[in-house]
Amino acid sequence: MNTPISPELVSKAHEVLAEAQRVVIFTHMGPDGDAIGSSLALRHYLESRSTATQATVIVPNDFPDFLAWMPGADQILVYEGHAEQCDRCLDEADVVVCLDFNDPRRIGPVGERVQQKPCPKVMIDHHLYPTDFATVLISDPAVSSTCELVYYFLRQREGESWHPSPEIANCLYTGLMTDTGNFSYNSNRPELYEIIAELMRAGIQKDVIYDRVFNQYSADRMRLMGYCLYKKMRLYPEHHMALITLSIDELKQFNYKQGDTEGIVNLPLQMGDIFYSVFMREQEPKPGTTKNVVKVSFRSQGDRPVNVMAAEVFRGGGHANASGGDFYGSIHTAARLFLREYPKYFKKE
Ligand code: 5GP
Ligand code: MN
User: Fold this and answer.
1) pLDDT 10s per residue in the chain (349 long)?
2) Which residues contact 70 (CB under 8 A, 6 or more apart)?
């Protein structure tokens, strides 16, 4: 199997981790299946390798309910609302591992603290343009997911005789599955399927994982999806683009819960002639601020990068076909800005 991490990086990272008794694993704001999957997989690995190691996963804000079944999810610490406990844990750590993000700003207010902490940091990630804040930086935007990278990291370290435990296998599969939309994008490398075969031999039930993650919508979420498609989707045929926006009031009507809008941005791409899809969700101002925050998600197909607009207009970034950013102000102002700017970035065909 082609393993894309250089052996030197693997040894360096393992050297750092071998000495560590207390490890804190951070992953990004709005944690998804790859974020939680890679973090828990690494935690299980580190703790099974040595009983002297204690590894804690910290997320900046809560993760969606459809990931709560994952082994170890009940021990994850949420920074938002539990800052003191998390800060204490971070203070006691000998090593910090950053998974599925490459810029300290992606973990919110605690990012600064992580950056300042004088201890070795290992970063494993698959997004473009990593910032230079880790002691060991393992980054490859060509792979499907951070879970895929964590798999290589463990495989390269442990050698061919290593078999992932069922816990590790369940966690890694979840990230492979969610970051590729159940293997419908970013999923053309044959190595991915060799990993899946291996995880299945380790005991995962892939159809059960699919059901636990993708078939867990509430009635409110189904109705919100219907509302988005029926009432809110605006089409821009010249650019083969769809835009959906949701205000705070609209979200309240559907009793919005964290994760309820996950995946809505992908729906318009199911139309044959839509190649760009943009979704905007308005949120209450962050504590200590007055402006609403609008979270913007971009998706596209083929050679139509959306990360440049995400970076230049919405201070975000991401992959060529899936990126995001945010905007401080009302949903109407955000939409107006987007509608003014997109012709500079999107192709007319
Ligand atoms: P989503 O639309 O699912 O929130 O995010 C899709 C992808 O866009 C993420 O995997 C991440 O790569 C990127 N992304 C989303 N929001 C941000 C952001 O605020 N900043 C950066 N740099 N990337 C983002
Ligand atoms: Mn990811």
Assistant:
1) 767 899 999 999 999 999 899 999 999 999 999 999 999 999 999 999 999 999 999 999 999 999 999 999 999 999 999 999 999 999 999 999 999 999 999 999 999 999 999 999 999 999 988 999 999 999 999 999 999 999 999 999 999 999 999 999 999 999 999 999 999 988 999 999 999 999 999 999 999 999 999 999 999 999 999 999 999 999 999 999 999 999 999 999 999 998 899 999 999 999 999 999 999 999 999 888 999 999 999 999 999 999 999 999 999 998 889 999 999 999 999 999 999 999 999 999 8
2) 36, 37, 40, 170, 171, 174
Q: Is the CB of 318 under 6 A from ligand 1?
A: yes
Q: How far apart are CA 31 and CA 241, in angstroms?
A: 27
CA distance 109 to 331: 23
For the Cβ of 316 lying below 6 angstroms from any atom of ligand 1, the answer is yes
Instruction: Give the pair of three-digit tokens for residue 183.
Output: 């293997």
* CA 325 to ligand 1 center in whole angstroms: 6
Q: In this structure, which long-range contacts are made by residues 306-315, counting pairs with CB atoms below 8 Å and at least 24 apart in sequence?
A: 306/276, 306/345, 306/346, 307/128, 308/345, 309/341, 309/342, 309/344, 309/345, 309/346, 312/345, 313/337, 313/338, 313/341, 313/345
CA distance 285 to 329: 9
Say how many residues make up the chain.
349
What separation in Å is there between the alpha carbon of 53 and the centre of ligand 2? 26
Question: HEC string of 147-203?
Answer: HHHHHHHHHHHHCCCCCCCHHHHHHHHHHHHHHCCCCCCCCCCHHHHHHHHHHHHCC
Cβ of 322 below 6 Å from ligand 1: yes
Cβ(104) – ligand 1 distance below 6 Å:
no
Q: Which residues does 253 contact at the CB level (< 8 Å), separation at least 6?
A: none
Q: Tell me, in angstroms, the distance from the centre of ligand 2 to residue 321's CA.
A: 13
CB 319 near ligand 1, within 6 Å: yes
Ordered by where they begin, the domains of the chain are: 7-213 (3.90.1640.10), 219-344 (3.10.310.30)
